[in-house]
Amino acid sequence: MSDRQGQTGLLLAKADGPEQAAAVGAQAGGRVFLFLRTDDFQRDYRRMSDNGVSFLESPRHEPYGTVAVFADLYGNRWDLIEMTASP
Prior knowledge:
This protein has two helices and five strands, in the order αβαββββ. The chain has helices at residues 18-23, 41-50, and strands spanning 34-37, 54-55, 60-62, 65-71, 77-83.
């Protein structure tokens, strides 16, 4: 979903019962399974860090782009990633 300012939102379902609640934050077995793509890594990394987002590593440069792993409030691991421009 998006608003008129071009921002994007994400709606996640709440756990329904103890079995689902026990799996929150562990759905991917400790691996990254969510990706937040940006067009300005440094801007968004600074903004997220300044607002208390817990980054689990320092930003790194890979052949495919700049990336850093962060955890959401429930322990899910995400990549903040700015892809390298294709030739």
